[in-house]
Amino acid sequence: MTRLYVHPLAVRVWHWINALGFVALIVTGVQIRYVDLINWMTFATAVSVHNAVGWVLIGNYFVWLLFYVFTDRIRVYHPDLNPARQWRDSLRQLAYYGYGIFKGAANPHRPAVLRKFNPVQGVIYQLVMMLLVPLQFYTGVLLWDLDRFAGSVEFFGGVRVVANVHVLLFVFFVAFILVHPYLASLGHSPSAHFRAMITGHEEIEDEADAQGATPLAASVTARQPAGHSPGA
Predict the structure, then answer these.
(1) Looking at residue 146, what is its pLDDT?
(2) I need a surface site. Which of 42, 63, 100, 173 has the fewest CB within 10 A?
(3) Taking the domains of the chain in order of start, what are their residue ranges?
(4) Quick one: which H or E segment has residue 188?
(5) Strand, helix or coil at 195?
(6) Which residues contact residue 194 at a Cβ distance below 8 angstroms, ignoring those fewer than 6 apart?
(7) How far apart, in whole angstroms, are the C-alpha atoms of residue 95 and residue 92?
(8) Side-chain-facing half-sphere of 70: CA atoms under 13 Å
(9) Beta partners for residue 203, in sequence order
């Protein structure tokens, strides 16, 4: 095994605050949305917690943004500037996810300090962090004070449109939260990537070990080389 320091402390702190915060937003959001069906907490408490956690995560997002913009770490999100190679490597990664992983094939992505995401992850995380997360926060702020932001709400088609966008993104992030731990468990051991988001060090299997992997269906230990980083 080779140990590679790919998750700086600032990223790890951001990641866990973000993860816990999004879980809190999901729980309180469900209570707010389905107040007649669910009674986890009072409606007023759910709204207060939802708003408070939302503002914390907005601040946390700007910490993430400033860290990546003003360091060379922003390169982890950059796609390959050669479109043909980006497309080819993405197809290889998708083939691995859909077929190769169940046959014990080696992960085609070999992580590096500034290339911790595979080609598919890089594109998805960039879309999520640069578009979907800001849009979720923006619609949340509009719904937080409809009177103050009445002009913006009307510009985007009214409160129903803004609320529906917010809820659709909520559904996406619920799915993301559910799938994310599964993908994070696909390291050389189920806990490898989770430990990495605590220590900062990814354990990378050597080439010989990767080539000798056994089929996933036959052995739960046939977890693949790092490339499913558990956090942005």
Answers:
(1) 94
(2) 42
(3) 2-125+169-211
(4) none
(5) helix
(6) 184, 185, 230
(7) 5
(8) 7
(9) 3
